[in-house]
Amino acid sequence: MTNSRPQSQSELSQLDIPFMGRWHYSRAEIIANGIVHAVGIVLAIAAGSTLLALAAYRTGPGEYVAAAFYVVSLLTVLSISLAYNLWPVSSPAKWILRRFDHAAIYLLIAATYTPFLAQLGGSPLAVSMIVLVWIAAAVGIAIKVFLPGRFDRLAIVFYLAIGWSGIVLVEPLVRTLPATSIALIVAGGIVYSCGVIFFAWKGLRFHNALWHGFVVTGAGLHLAAMVDCLVINRL
Fold it and tell me: Is pLDDT larger for residue 170 or for residue 122?
């Protein structure tokens, strides 16, 4: 005989929302995370607008589109992440937002690569790298959107692998890009990689706010590299 005991609201929530138990953040942690996102969005709008305004007459059409796409991708990532992290846990929509939040990371990685690889003058190696990065990003996005909750640990490795795959082009990039730009790109990659530690450290209080602080900092360093490459060194 089956148990016909009515289920509580808590039990129904656990059934309706996959992995609901992952979200155990205090009000202070949620507020801190929201502040980090808000600061990141404001800075991205200000710095991104400045980059696009200054680069308008100093870059070719392809370079400019790539830079604009980076700015749009960064704002998209931060906005989706803000919505996902502040959305009530009791709503099934949070799980939907989680798909797009994790998928958007791949979008940002590919969008970060494109403006710098565009500086290599359309060489076959650079074009091949851009294609491979975008294919890898598309695969990652598809997995996150259509297979939510699967391969989460593997995804961390995949993020890092795509992010550091540009090392195969280190020689032509060092020859082409300004030294300051290279330093900022590497610094941004290191910051992102260090942030993964806090992303995975679920037991640490404020780990989510710390992780997103590293994301904002890493993205800012890469944006600064674009300003240096596309604007300052063309004055």
Answer: 170
d(CA 182, CA 171): 11
d(C-alpha 120, C-alpha 103), whole Å: 28
pLDDT value of position 179: 96
User: Cα(43)–Cα(232) distance, rounded to whole angstroms?
Assistant: 19
Name residue, tokens 């607008």.
49
Contact residues for 216 (Cβ-Cβ < 8 A; gap 6+): 36, 39, 40, 43, 78
What string of DSSP letters covers 59-96? S-HHHHHHHHHHHHHHHHHHHHHHHHHHS-TTSTHHHH
Half-sphere exposure of 76 (CA within 13 A, CB side): 16
Cα–chain center distance at 219: 8
pLDDT tens digits along 73-89: 999 999 999 999 999 88
Q: pTM for this one? A: 0.87
How far from each other are the two terminal CA atoms of the chain, in whole angstroms? Answer: 80
